[in-house]
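Practice problem: predict the structure.
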Amino acid sequence: MEAALLLRLLQLASPSLPIGAYTYSQGLESAIEQGTVCDESSARIWIAESLAIVADFEAPVLWRLLKAFSRRDATAVKYWSECFIAARDTAEFRAETIQMGYSLGKLVLDLNLGDESLRAILADQAEIPLPTAFACAAEALTVPHEPALLGMLFSLIENQVLVCVKSVPLGQVAGQSLLFSLHSIIEEAAHHARQLNDNELSNWAPGLSLLSMQHETQYSRIYRS
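Answer:
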């Protein structure tokens, strides 16, 4: 990648991006509460399995949204945005993607990123899930699609590792070791996501859905999901 494009991707995938990612654990806090995740080994298993779910649905939806924004195909953007929102099967997961998508979408519009046609498609969405806002931002910044997909996956996994560092808790060195060990799995997930046909997409993860529902009534919690 050109240096300028790499810097844009790093900023888009940065944990300092003001969209509130650090306030969500995506069900991981429930798994820690119940003892399913209790050390570096169990954290790696959890995150790898979570990534497999993302690779079957969220990542291929993002891939389709990247292509749709590049074609300025408003119909496809609307279709995949609605599909993604409909597939959020708990109140917390739905609120998470809408809040983060709204924040990133507002950033795109406030900074006037991309051209007017791109921003018009984004602004026309009734609700903006995170993959839609991320795809629009990546296209507005002219980040190539494959690196953009890897950037989103790395951002998701980095947030999961940070949750483990703070809440298991793991040490900082253990957290970085865990993150390094997941690099190859992130690459495999991105490759898998690019190969799926529309009828192969699936977000079937009943165990994760149950943990999310239990988190809604968990007695003590730090995260919003």
